[in-house]
Amino acid sequence: MRLTWSPLASEQVHDAVAYIAADDPAAALQWLERLLERVAALAQYPDAGRVVPELQRQDIREVFVSPYRVMYRRGVEAVEIAAIRHGAREFDGGEIAP
Questions:
Q1: 17/25 Cα distance (integer angstroms)
Q2: Which of 32, 35, 36, 63 has its CA 20 to 30 A from that of 26?
Q3: Per-domain residue ranges for the chain?
Q4: Which of 74, 48, 69 is nearest to 59 (CA)?
């Protein structure tokens, strides 16, 4: 299965790494490595994540790379990383287009 990133998710990863790196550059690199490993596994196991509770749609799922929620769209041929949100932030369903 193919793995793609939405422009929003790409921007959010950059922002998260910059935010973490401001306090601890080594921790930012470790987090990014965990994120990339977790996301790569979704290409092989696209149903590994749970359904996003706020949406209750089988095609929109999430995994966690603490403290972030990684929301993705599971398609027939591809998994698209749709958004990455800090777990403490309020969910914004508008980030994940229909």
A1: 8
A2: 63
A3: 2-88
A4: 74
pLDDT tens-digit map of 49-64: 999 999 999 999 999 9
Topology of domain 2-88 in CATH is YaeB-like fold (3.30.2310)
Based on C-alpha coordinates, what's the Rg of the chain?
A: 13
What pLDDT digit, counting tens, does each position of 33-52 carry? 999 999 999 999 999 999 99
Cα–Cα distance between 86 and 16 in angstroms, integer?
A: 8
State the angle between helix axes of 25-44 and 7-23 in degrees (0 to 180), rounded to the nearest 10: 150
CB-neighbour burial class of residue 62 (10 A; exposed 0-12, middle 13-18, buried 19+): buried
